[in-house]
Amino acid sequence: MAKKLVKVGVKREKGYLYYVDKDGDVSCAKMARGGKKGGSPKKIAKTGIKREVGVLYFVDKDGDVSCAKMVRGGTKKKAAKKSAKKSAKKGGKKGGKKKR
Cα–Cα distance between 83 and 99 in angstroms, integer? Predict the structure, then answer.
């Protein structure tokens, strides 16, 4: 569940991407469409949020800054698949019959 951090009240325009930059301020940039390139970012509001690792910061539908904890579950599944492949190559339990 998202938690509202700062009430900014940014008015959104179509064709622009609104986000929280690395300084913790709200910025916007023109989105790239078709063959046209996007624009350079502009600071909209200074909030000075201290960012934490594992937390997603975004501008919500009301134009305020919110955050949510990131769900990171994919790395465990990939590690399990790699270890199963290694044991099969070495002739482990999943390897089948051994040649003599």
Answer: 22
- Contact of 57 with 20, CB cutoff 8 Å: yes
Closest CA to 59 of 6, 95, 1: 6
The pair of three-digit structure tokens given for residue 54, joined into one six-digit string: 């594992």
- Is the CA virtual torsion 8, 14, 16, 19 positive or negative? positive
- Closest by CA position to 45, among listed 73, 12, 67: 12
Q: Is the pLDDT of residue 75 over 80?
A: no
Q: What is the mean pLDDT of the chain?
A: 83
Q: Contact at 8 Å (CB) between 29 and 42? A: yes
Under DSSP, is residue 42 helix (H, G, I), strand (E, B) or coil? strand
Give the pTM. 0.65
CB 5 within 8 A of CB 67: yes
- Tell me the residue length of the chain: 100
pLDDT on residue 81: 61
